Amino acid sequence: MAAQGRGSAKNMAIVAVLGMVVVLVSAGMAESAVYNVGDNGGWTFNANSWPAGKRFKAGDVLVFKYDSTAHDVTAVSAAAYKACAKPARAAKVYKSGSDRVTLARGTNYFICGVPGHCQAGMKIAVTAA
């Protein structure tokens, strides 16, 4: 009978550890915030000032809402962002009109890839801690 008790205690310890892992993972997910880019105005021209005053963390989600027949969201490099340059072929382009993008640690750069839209201020740089 004594051996049975040790096995039960070991199983209970494993269940307790797994339970703590689930709680920690859930807590990390719960801390992520969701932001609507451009607030009620959505992803549009002169959006470049939208991130000002906001504190973002890696794992936070940006929701880009826009007219998909007129715009897109393109994740670009810092150089492409500054120059409003055509993005590299490997750039991730979103076109649904309701895109959810999870922020990576560091500065994340987004532009509208439609010619002239980035130059008109349809771009944002979001730094996530």
UniProtKB/TrEMBL annotation:
PROSITE patterns per UniProt: COPPER_BLUE, PHYTOCYANIN
Domain Phytocyanin: 33-129
PANTHER family: BLUE COPPER PROTEIN, PUTATIVE, EXPRESSED-RELATED
SUPFAM superfamilies hit by this protein: Cupredoxins
Gene3D superfamilies (UniProt xref): Cupredoxins - blue copper proteins
Organism: Brachypodium distachyon
Keywords: Copper, Disulfide bond, Metal-binding, Signal
Leader peptide range in chain numbering: 1-27
Name the UniProt record assigns to this protein: Plantacyanin
GO terms of molecular function: electron transfer activity; metal ion binding
Superkingdom, taxonomy of origin: Eukaryota
GO cellular component, one term: plasma membrane
